[in-house]
Design a protein that fits this description.
The chain is built from 27 helices and 23 strands. Among the domains are: 64 residues, no CATH class; 326 residues, Rossmann fold (3-Layer(aba) Sandwich); 164 residues, no CATH class. The strands form 6 sheets. The protein has a 6-stranded mixed β-sheet, with no helix packed on it. A 5-stranded mixed β-sheet has the order 10-9-8-7-15. Strands 14-16-17-13-18 form a 5-stranded parallel β-sheet, sandwiched between helices. By secondary structure, it is an alpha/beta fold.
């Protein structure tokens, strides 16, 4: 039902509408009402501008249909001489409309009519426009202006919709667009990079590659489309994420603390603003946060299907944000009553999942099951590994949750190195533990051409503070070359590339490695940067009947524990999820235990190498309350013993100590003559720092550097080896240690008399070493150890005498045989 207003009623309606407009507050003064905060006002202002924007390159649609309808009415007025022109204009405007009104139309351009081009037509339209204005014939005035502005000329048979701008990792900006042509065919949402959009020829080719989408215009039209797409996509920038794991957003530093803010991205979810988020239909995570001024901002992040250069080497880790532990079929032993963190869990671990719980009961049950599950995993893995090294393995994987803060504070972060004979289960154990972070991987094979140094760098760039598993390490330069070793070395302090890359991509070392192999590396600088755990089937804790059956079947893993972990390994991601959800508490607890660990008498580097995994396991235990004080103390003693042995290994790996060790080995091989050494002794009342161990003989070893180095070099060449340092470097490094004998003369040179081959003595420059202070010399032992050893000294030797005493005692014997007086 339609109703037509009288002329008088129409005039009154127009007057009232105009009065309301005059009294209205302009949109640019809306802020005076203080209805919205600054960020909301900014959003409204941007959206209004977007909605009111008039495209520079129009596309046939509703507006054009209205134009056609108005022209149709004018063409029916046969009583004026413009009806034929209206018919022609109507046909021109219909050409930019699709046959199906649900489809978009054509992009078109209009060229204004100029007097020079068609004087007669131009003057006729100007006269019509003036006459229509005088007689208030608004439809004819509109018609005259429409023709003066020019008829539409089709430029492309499709519509471009731009949803957002994608700021790519390489600095380029792509646009997520969708092309729909006049037939209704569509490309779906696709990315269009800047190269495809920068020139008509490239844009035409890009469109044709995606189907029946024909661009028939030139540079000017494309520039207009640039303006339209840019305006419609304004304030809709999405950041491309090519790195999984930790994505830093901001850092606030104070003299005592550095606070990091970021997002954890995984393959199926992201942890942001204290909750798990899943992407929208376009794969975008929308992150709302406040800036320093308190304004609420919203940024979009899209996790790329590939990494910066190649597909993700370990694929995307999944943490299943909607999965609940109480819904899983877990087989858990009853939990004992434990009082470690003040928590007292129920006596039973809850073998049957609850079906209906309120939110508070559900959280309590989830916590209880996670506690029992973690304890069970620790126990099972401890029996498989055969010692508390299993707990350190678990802690090393958990430590990645605190890696951003640890690396920020220490500028170092250790990985993990497991080694052992073939078929010992080392790779299998690491693959189990990789599932803590949602990975199901075999590991990157380090042997030969299976991987390259560039591939390792790419993997370390793809995963930020998430473990990267490397397998099949061999201490063979043909299998694992120097370039790969250099990447492993840089993992500890995350050293980056310092070389030209023609692609312009500079890879970043964002994580460190978990390495497995039958051996460790002879590169001491690398070995000292990774905690080492040996996996041996001979250390496993078998059930009495199981060990015999395993020997018959040839199995290397306890079957009951193996089957349990195989069944439950796919639930290990709950532990990674647990600490991410409580990361603030986990990081604080890790730093607390790491600081306590630093009070122990441990080599400074090993405080980091062993302390991070130790502190992280302790932090997890404190959060869950899963282990007793006795169990925690036993783990600490185990780690201290490991660190003591590792400290000895580190000392023996120093270049100066390698030199001494080579001297000892060459002496035992009878390749260095006794004339290269001189030994002096002094009787002490007791062993150093042990007043109850009486009658100790202290030795000083003097080395003839020229003769000893020459003889050692000849022997090493037979072994295809060489001395690690030159003579001057050896002297400089040796002289900085407390075992070095400082010269008494004013010239700073120590001189001693050495026997010559022909039996005479000669005074020569000498290097002196106090054996009691050298790491390979005196080995301090407790009174209890010496009491036990006193009965076996004759057979097994003095445990206080290190490897250096083999050389000392040999030189002493040679000196006694010499008849030449000193």
């Amino acid at each position: 039902m339609s109703h037509e207003l009288t002329k008088r009623a129409e005039e009154r309606a127009r007057e009232e509408f105009q009065r309301a407009l005059d009294a209205a507050l302009p949109n640019y003064d809306l802020w005076q009402l203080k209805l919205l905060n600054e960020s909301e006002e900014e959003w409204v202002r941007n959206e209004v501008e977007r909605m009111l924007y008039e495209p520079k390159l129009a596309n046939g649609g509703d507006f054009e249909r209205r134009v056609v309808e108005k022209l149709k009415k004018l063409s029916r007025q046969k009583d004026w001489d413009g009806w034929a022109r209206a018919q022609g204009a109507m046909r021109a405007w219909r050409n930019v409309l699709p046959d199906n009104p649900r489809c978009p139309g054509y992009y078109y351009q209009r060229t204004p009519l100029k007097r020079a081009a068609n004087k007669e037509e131009y003057e006729w339209l100007q006269a019509l426009k003036h006459s229509a204005h005088v007689h208030k014939q608004w439809d004819k005035k509109w018609f005259a202006q429409l023709l003066l502005d020019g008829a539409p000329e089709p430029a492309a048979d499709f519509l471009v919709e731009c949803f957002y701008l994608l700021k790519c990792a390489d600095g380029d900006v792509s646009r997520q667009v969708q092309l729909t042509n006049v037939l209704g065919e569509t490309t779906g949402k696709v990315l269009m990079d800047s190269k495809a959009f920068h020139a008509p020829k490239d844009f035409r080719e890009w469109c044709l590659k995606r189907g029946g989408f024909n661009w028939g215009a030139g540079e000017k039209e494309l520039q207009k489309l640039h303006l339209d797409i840019g305006r419609l996509a304004a304030w809709k920038t999405v950041h491309q994420v090519v790195t999984l794991g930790w994505f830093p957003l901001s850092k606030k530093s104070s003299p005592t603390k550095t606070e990091l803010n970021g997002i954890w991205f995984f393959g199926d979810c992201a942890w942001m603003s204290g909750k798990w988020e899943t992407p929208d239909e376009d794969g975008i995570y929308w992150h709302r946060h406040a800036d320093e001024a308190g304004n609420v901002l919203e940024n979009g992040y899209q996790v790329s299907s590939d990494g910066r250069e190649n597909p993700f080497h370990q694929k995307k880790p999944l943490l299943h944000p909607h999965a609940r532990l109480i819904e899983q079929a877990l087989e858990l032993e009853p939990m004992p009553e434990i009082n470690f963190t003040g928590q007292k869990p129920p006596a039973k671990g809850g073998l049957v999942p609850a079906l209906s719980l309120n939110p508070a009961e559900e959280r309590e049950r989830e916590e209880m099951l996670c506690r029992a599950f973690f304890r069970e995993m620790c126990q099972r893995l401890t029996r498989i590994v055969g010692s508390d090294d299993a707990l350190f393995l678990i802690g090393s994987f958990l430590s990645f949750a605190a890696a951003p803060e640890l690396f920020e504070e220490l500028s170092q972060f250790p990985g993990l190195w497991t080694h052992g004979e073939a078929n010992s289960g080392k790779s299998t154990i690491l693959r189990w533990l990789m599932e803590i972070w949602g990975f199901r991987v075999l590991g990157i094979n380090l042997k030969g051409t299976n991987s390259t140094a560039v591939g390792l760098l790419q993997a370390a760039d793809q995963y930020s503070n998430l473990p990267v598993l490397l397998d099949e390490f061999r201490d063979d330069k043909e299998q694992v070359g120097k370039d790969k070793l250099g990447v492993l070395h840089n993992g500890f302090d995350r050293g980056g590339q310092a070389k030209f890359n023609p692609s312009g991509i500079q890879r970043s070392m964002r994580t460190t490695f978990i390495i497995s192999g039958e051996s460790t590396t002879t590169e001491s600088a690398i070995r000292g940067r990774y905690p080492h755990v040996q996996i041996s089937k001979h250390l496993r804790q078998w059930a009495p009947d199981e060990e015999e059956r395993a020997a018959i079947d040839g199995r290397t893993l306890p079957i009951e524990d193996f089957l349990w972990i195989t069944k439950h390994r796919h639930f290990f991601f709950f532990f990674g999820r647990y600490i991410i959800e409580r990361r603030e508490q986990f990081v604080a607890a890790t730093f607390k235990f790491f600081e306590l660990w630093g009070h122990e008498n441990i080599d400074p580097r090993l405080q980091v190498v062993h302390g991070v995994g130790y502190a992280s396991w302790m932090a997890m235990v404190e959060l869950l309350g899963s282990h007793s004080g006795e169990e925690v103390e036993a783990f600490k003693r185990h780690m201290l013993d490991n660190s003591k042995r590792a400290t000895e290994d580190v000392q023996s790996d120093l270049n100066v100590n390698v030199f001494i060790q080579d001297l000892i080995t060459a002496w035992n091989a009878r390749e260095i003559p006794a004339q290269c050494f001189r030994v002096e002794s002094q009787y002490l009342e007791h062993a150093p720092d042990e007043p109850n161990q009486l009658n100790w003989e202290s030795y000083t070893l003097y080395i003839h550097p020229e003769n000893a180095i020459a003889a050692l070099q000849i022997w090493l060449r037979k072994q295809n080896a060489s001395i690690v340092l030159k003579r001057k470097d050896l002297r400089d490094q040796l002289s900085k240690n407390d075992f070095w004998v400082k010269p008494e003369g004013g010239d700073g040179i120590c001189r001693k008399r050495f026997s010559r081959v022909e039996g005479r003595m000669a005074t020569c420059v000498a290097w002196g070493i106090k054996v009691d202070k050298h790491p390979l010399g005196y080995q301090r032992q407790s009174d209890e150890v010496m009491k036990v050893a006193s009965t076996t000294l004759a057979k097994q030797g003095d445990p206080r005498k290190g490897p250096l005493f083999m050389l000392i005692e040999g030189v002493l014997a040679a000196q006694k045989e010499s008849s030449e007086p000193e």
